[in-house]
Amino acid sequence: MFSKVLVANRGEIAVRVMRACEELGVRTVAVYSEADKHGGHVRYADEAYNIGPARAADSYLDHESVIEAARKAGADAIHPGYGFLAENAAFARKVEDSEFKWIGPSADAMERLGEKTKARALMQDADVPVVPGTTEPAESAADVKAVADDYGYPVAIKAEGGGGGRGLKVVHSEAEVEDQFETAQREGEAYFDNASVYVEKYLEAPRHIEVQILADEHGNVRHLGERDCSLQRRHQKVIEEAPSPALDDDLRERIGEAARRGVRAADYTNAGTVEFLVEDGEFYFMEVNTRIQVEHTVTEEVTGLDVVKWQIRVAAGEELDFSQEDVEIDGHSMEFRINAEAPEKDFAPATGTLTTYDPPGGIGIRMDDAVRQGDEIGGDYDSMIAKLIVTGSDRTEVLARAERALAEFDIEGLRTVIPFHRLMLTDEEFRAGTHTTKYLDEVLDRDRIEAAVERWAPDAVNGDDDEEDVTERTFTVEVNGKRFEVSLEERGAPAIPLGGAGAASKPSGPRKRRDDGDDDQQVIEGDGESVTAEMQGTILSVDVEEGDEVEPGDTVCVLEAMKMENDVVAERGGTVTQVLVGEGDSVDMGDVLLVLE
């Protein structure tokens, strides 16, 4: 077994991996960006190292910085969690070529399955059904049109390295092909460092079913049953459950065996997830996620197996000590993603300070998180701050227990999706288990979401920041990039900024970044109407120039926040008199992007 593992991730998944390490007697190392100096995973780890600025490309996605931190720490293995570098075959190969052990599938297997066209071809050879489409990357918009000519619209353009709906664009007509092709490529490059895309027929109303796999280095392959991830918004999973309420025993058996057959053909080891779409009693291979999944928790709850521990044990060379027949599904489990988002604002990312954070407890309740009361939630990374996992003897008990748990869950200081989850537990289609992947985006009445927020969270952002006096100050010191903390206790001491002693207060008013990298006050000329940022994020593109005429509803720029592209539109028409941001600029909520007259 390893002596020390570096977890190349952040937030709740980093803490989840560290807990597994601790139970195995393995010490842990955290890495963190400037934005995560006070992050929960940093607090939890045995030691922590700063690897760069807030921008993920300069920190969590920086291969050399992560590996160098492992060397400084004297780690002997690296676990990537999910997201960031978890499915990056180039990084996995660098780790394999170094003195460290990679806790995950081999780089070769990641290349075979991580890039979707290769995976589709491999699955076809293994007699696993695939959705009709290309088995080679699409080189141009003409390739998209060719698939549509064969199978009809709509078709889906998907990023080769994609997942979670990122880099996926649905094309409903020929007129949309060019724009959607470019957008899918851009998202693939931004999120997965891979602009390659492929095309397939878009299924109209499928269920999203995935199978958890464990495979060791001794030739053993096991599946741990399926999860139903059909409740999705913009292809992002919201609530997941195991087992699926939509499968009968025959289909369940066929999907499980197809998943085992496929990963065995790929010479795959460690944990992975084979994802399928199910429609009209038939199932189709979609992709393999060559990593741990967000929703692995529900599989653990119904099987009693610790998937993360097995990742570590398999990487250490251990053999799976159970047969396929030993895997039994007991009870039912659901996972509710607790995202910092405003449901009443089309789930726009939300930021703020957790003035109250009081999660539920009791029988059948599991919380995976890395936050505590008083933490500041920024907009630099994914919006998920916690996961609530509810388990019971059957689905009926889980629904009742989840109602109780969500009612107990008290969060103040920023908007979350808890009111939406409570709404789902009253929704007839969800309760019946008959929803498809299209239900939230195309069927659910938006007014019901607004009513749910008004009913269950009217004052969610009205936390009181003045209730407690600061009696203990924690100072963060970095020596050669390694983090140390020094705590001093004072009575009657004045409050100090979150950044630590001597931190400068942030000047009031909107700011923008100059080309030289320094912050400077924005200078607004004239008295036109300002178009401002509704959230913190990064400008992906600016679609207008000074002097352009815009109409109400026109997109003026694209803002990336928490891994989602958001179109910024003009609320009224006019002439663009100032453009105050450029591609790549970081902006805060309320910053002026451009001025219209």
From TrEMBL:
Coiled coil: none annotated. Residues 120-316 form the ATP-grasp domain. SMART domains: Biotin_carb_C. It comes from the Archaea. Gene3D superfamilies: 2.40.50.100, 3.40.50.20, ATP-grasp fold, A domain (3.30.1490.20), ATP-grasp fold, B domain (3.30.470.20). Residues 517-528 have a biased composition (Acidic residues). Keywords: ATP-binding, Biotin, Ligase, Magnesium, Nucleotide-binding. Its cofactor is Co(2+); biotin; Mn(2+). This is Acetyl-CoA carboxylase biotin carboxylase subunit. It comes from Haloferax marinisediminis. Signal peptide: none annotated. GO terms for molecular function: ATP binding; ligase activity; metal ion binding. It holds the Pfam family Biotin_lipoyl. Residues 1-445 form the Biotin carboxylation domain.
